[in-house]
Specification:
Length: 135
């Protein structure tokens, strides 16, 4: 999944979450520096996310069709809660969307070598990845 289509997916998922009050593209939020991403407003304030993508191994940009490849979505776990930090909240919201294109969702803060970086890596059933980082 390319970043533009992922942005649309995130907007669709977030707008249906009762703990989110607003979601818009970064461009709509006034950020012209980052081409793909969203600004999500929740009770605790706004969080901006930048999205970058990686094609499947061996794929070339020319001729790559961003066609959905489906499989079993990742286990959902607990739903997004109002008090969750932005990374945990978005990971839970995306997992509960149960997109059959998403194979895994990895939170950066839960990695052993994570440091203080907040973000997500989503791997899709076609081998593509999206890196979502908090700005």
């Amino acid at each position: 999944m390319r970043p533009a289509r992922f942005t649309d997916l995130v907007i669709d998922v977030v707008k249906n979450q009762p703990t989110a009050t607003r979601v818009q593209t970064l461009a709509e939020a006034g950020d012209t520096r980052h081409p793909y991403g969203v600004a999500i407003t929740r009770e605790g304030g706004e969080t901006r996310w930048q999205f970058t993508g990686q094609l499947p191994e061996g794929a070339k940009h020319e001729g790559f069709a961003d066609e959905p490849v489906t499989g079993t979505p990742p286990a959902a776990g607990p739903g997004p809660q109002a008090g969750d930090d932005p990374e945990a909240w978005l990971a839970a919201a995306l997992a509960h969307a149960e997109s059959p294109e998403v194979a895994t969702i990895e939170r950066w803060s839960t990695r052993p070598e994570s440091g203080t970086r907040k973000g997500l890596t989503l791997t899709f059933h076609n081998g593509a990845r999206i890196f979502a980082r908090v700005l």
